[in-house]
Q: What sequence folds into this?
């Protein structure tokens, strides 16, 4: 930590700061520059194995220093996160997810294989879900997305089928041999969602719902943490740190666009966050070009861009009939568009020395013809 | 709702859209302009007294239309909220809060009286809370703020005293005759916090925690809904609509700054939101210059600006010793600074034909000298 | 300057950085913390009286350091501006502008008197300008605004009357005894505009048009520098530093709103910039609530907020018939609204121990009745 | 154009608006909805071949309408630009630039060939420029970038070599057979820069310097228009419209990142703007990952992402010794990094069915060994 003093500070101000530091078991090293004095602060090592202080300095102490007389600014030096950091865990994290019928033993998110997750925004009916699942699986997706609990900006919008939606996802999982990712919105639903999902999704609006982060941190289930609408990279990593600090190390991060002044897209997809997170952290990163852009005509180019920039996977909204979707119709690909996209993803993946984790062709005992979907 | 067609759209595209509208019980009126066709859409009146469709049009239908061939954009015409809207409820809402020892029968938030709420960011100890409460009450505050459950960006920061903090707030309430405002972070804590608080605070990070909004919407307690860090005015009003739609009409909105590119302030306080909300809604609006700026030296000028622009109240962080605060030390006023500020607020309030709701002088049976604070 | 090293840096990296610093006549002081090493850098004093290096360190050197192996970040310590800084010039700057018929010898911008500048966005015709000038002067404005050269987002919009507009402003000046402020958009127009204007306005889009800044910096005319749409406070002060560094010390800064995600207002007026600039700089600060909000119904509350927060003046668009304005009709006050506003500004100014610089009543030799306006 | 009336508007308000429209030669068609009335406005066709009105409606009229009583909002329907629009010019624009020694007759920007432009931020010396030019040409770049006139946030930073820098660029052009792109900052320099450059660059800070846009619009030289730091897509296209409306059709657009709240990157590169511009306009789009990210470690992944998303070219900063660069050292690739990058760009280009326009191998009469560079 570095304390930058005001040009007008007095010797007495400096003396008091040094005393304050000492009282907090820290050591201050003043350097008197041409115009200003700066004080370098060294912390004491924390209890072994415990990250409860960062660089040996309590975050509240840093805040308090900003309020002392003569102080202009306090500059943090250490990163405020540890468990998610690449510096303290240089090997990349690979999250293994067993999937029925998978010859490769399932998905390995964070490996050289790019994972394609696709499906409708929201589970609307058995027919809608099964049709989409079958189509995206045939096209190459290995993980099925679909919301049973849906956050909606308006209280008058559709909020999801709840547990009935989860059961339909489980049926699709058993029928088509796909992993399931679905959102959980509140701590009391976590155990229910864990019964059905392979990956728990934390939505953008809940990125700083700390009690929810704590709760999924106590599970033995992979978690996908979406970036908050206006979360900095640092805040996003700190939210992941919440989950890891409760014991759950299977966390992947999903870039889904940030809020900017631009009005033509729903969000601005921050593609640079993908390689940046890969530098800073060992956790896998997924791109969501559907929410990232909010426009069907931009989903495919942004999906390719994400993979070119190093994404470990993609999360894409697909709907058999987007104009009838109950939510997010404008950003859902049609099945045909998704079928066109997967081979392009594959080509980009090969160009960056990776591969797409493709499902095996559907074969017995799954006979598509015999499946009769409900409504 | 207005559908703007692409310049290149065909007659067939238009015919299909009109059929789609008809299938959804809507009527389309095309106008063929010099370059483009637009289709005005009229909805059917919703069930009497029910706001489940807006302008008679389901939000999902609007979204779905954006996905149809030939459509360039869909423009909403009606406001997506109703219960919070001034158009449908022209009289301002005044929230009455009984306060012990108050000769005026308590606070009347939204009236001509500007309400000053002050106190520490976080309840840290009995001594810290009681000292601050006594001081801010003497200086003129009528409502005491203080967090018992605290959201923290880092999992390693102090997260509040929990119920113990609530009990200390209750003690301060009984001792000094102030209303209490404190944050609730998760649905399962709502009933507990209701036992102690006069106003439930929903923090910025939880503005779109819909299950929490639902839960406070079912209470008979005033709620202060802080604006999310990157929430638009419309999203903020829709979040309030969640609460009102559950039956709780006692909602006030608190502007606490939005996230922008500027780095010198913690947030950018959007003062224009104060008169804008007053135009759009009947709900009271509170300014929070502490979070709005994040800098002690800016709190007082922004407090005055908020009142000049029409705020119904202020929420201000005060700490007896900011440099020892466990959170937000850099943005807390000292007691002396707060004492200086209240008369200035009073002068500005009078200049805009309002008044500050001031507490009566402390007198028997409350004898300050005899109070002994714990740690 | 502080160099923060990566946790993984080697001794060799540090040695090379110290050698690099030495080669640039700087001294490095490494401190080895628990997790990371930081290097404090001290510069050599620059040539006496010359601000060409900041804290004795060339800005390019700091940038270059960021590229060296093992470096995580370079933190600036010194402020990058000097001439505009309050630290190096503690007394506030007061800009005196002589105005015909003024009993007080003209305007004193930056003094205890709040200056009200008003007028149409654009000079459209003699009649429009003279009517507005007469009305705003009678209502209390002492400075007349009006654009002769207008920046327009679209090439198909009205771009101003040019020199003809300047001549009309000069006529209004002579007739009503008001100072004139008008925009200059390109270096070759500066000498022309100087012949007619009392204050040269640099618009938001030109805040970083450095050749224009240089050119107005060589004049003996007060300059109002508007904040760029997405300029940080620091960039804004650096743009002012350009002007001062050419010799022109008569600079005032104008906050006119910044670009954010909010769509209901044209910009988000950053009221906190007003007291913040007053802390950082000795230059006067003006608020522009017309561009700051873009909505007529928000102009008055934001004008009051700006004065409450410490603004030295206001710049307000007024049009005798806003619905016929060639530009910015939606944000122009009517004459009646402006007449209502001035006494409110006066009340707020008094509440913060200031006053409004009001014009004396119009009297002979100016006889309004006899003025005949052209078209 | 659509006028949305307030729910509380009166019949008289509507009558007055219809009269106002008629007076402006427009026709209004009111539709009375359940809650609100909207008025569709049809314009008159403009003079043949003239885009001076958009959809037959003057932009100022739309603005003025927003100020009328009873009006809630005015929604634009037509796009405000024409000459740059794909709707009115469906074929993509290909800009041909002759380059010495090129077997393919030069560059064809906007064709299936991806063009790589590289070089130093700033021309610093003959040696620095020639070394870089030789290296990037050998690695595959066909166009050399380098600033002779440099915008700098601080008045104390290096501002470029001026015409001397242009002459060095011309020498590099003649020696290595590369096209030259360099920035022009002010109208009076345009004719000078035209003598040396193959492409005139308009920097981000000057995107709305309208007199500069007018001036380059009168030249017969290709122009690269960088996106302003906080320019919307629409404003950016309107700035290009300025250039085309003066007669110069050879314009390419360059995405160089936008300003957001994120602090870890210098800007947020808006990759979605690339395919979006390709949808809206026929003009070529270039990606600038150097300014887009500001970090050397992110330049290569973002370069690949831009090409995957459809960019027609890349603009990349390369410096033989970034730690000695006078500007932008932290974002310049080393020569080795650039050599590694070009084959990766080539692989991505092939994956999206394009190719990279590569220079032929250097051969006689250019003998590298014999070139002796000055300082």
A:
């Amino acid at each position: 930590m570095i304390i930058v003093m005001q040009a007008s500070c007095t010797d007495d101000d400096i003396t008091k700061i040094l005393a304050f530091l000492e009282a907090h078991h820290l050591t201050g090293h003043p350097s008197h520059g041409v115009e200003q004095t700066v004080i370098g602060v060294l912390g004491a090592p924390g209890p072994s194995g415990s990250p409860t202080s960062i660089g040996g300095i309590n975050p509240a102490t840093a805040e308090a220093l900003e309020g002392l007389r003569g102080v202009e600014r306090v500059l943090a030096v250490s990163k405020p996160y540890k468990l998610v950091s690449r510096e303290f865990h240089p090997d990349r994290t690979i999250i293994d997810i067993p999937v029925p019928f998978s010859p490769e033993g399932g998905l390995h998110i964070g490996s050289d294989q790019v994972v394609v997750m696709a499906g409708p925004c929201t589970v609307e009916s058995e027919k809608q879900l099964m049709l989409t699942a079958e189509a995206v699986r045939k096209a190459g997706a290995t993980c099925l997305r679909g919301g049973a609990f849906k956050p909606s900006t308006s209280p008058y919008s559709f909020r999801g089928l709840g547990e009935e939606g989860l059961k339909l996802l489980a049926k699709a999982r058993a029928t088509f041999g796909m992993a399931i990712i679905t959102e959980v919105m509140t701590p009391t639903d976590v155990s229910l969602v864990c019964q059905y999902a392979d990956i728990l999704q934390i939505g953008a609006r809940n990125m700083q719902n700390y009690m929810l982060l704590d709760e999924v941190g106590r599970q033995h289930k992979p978690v996908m943490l979406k970036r908050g609408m206006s979360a900095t990279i640092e805040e996003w990593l700190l939210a992941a740190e919440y989950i890891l600090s409760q014991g759950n190390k299977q966390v992947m991060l999903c870039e889904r666009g940030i809020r900017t002044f631009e009005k033509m897209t729903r969000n601005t997809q921050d593609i640079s966050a993908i390689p940046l997170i890969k530098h800073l952290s060992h956790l896998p990163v997924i791109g969501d070009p559907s929410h990232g852009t909010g426009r069907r005509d931009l989903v495919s180019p942004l999906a390719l861009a994400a993979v070119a920039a190093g994404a470990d996977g993609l999360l894409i909204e697909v709907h058999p009939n987007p104009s009838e979707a109950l939510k997010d119709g404008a950003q859902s690909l049609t099945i045909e568009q998704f079928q066109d996209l997967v081979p392009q993803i594959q080509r980009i993946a090969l160009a960056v020395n990776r591969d797409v984790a493709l499902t095996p062709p559907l074969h017995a005992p799954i006979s598509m013809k015999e499946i009769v979907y409900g409504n």
About this structure: Chain C touches chain D through 54 residues (CB under 8 Å).
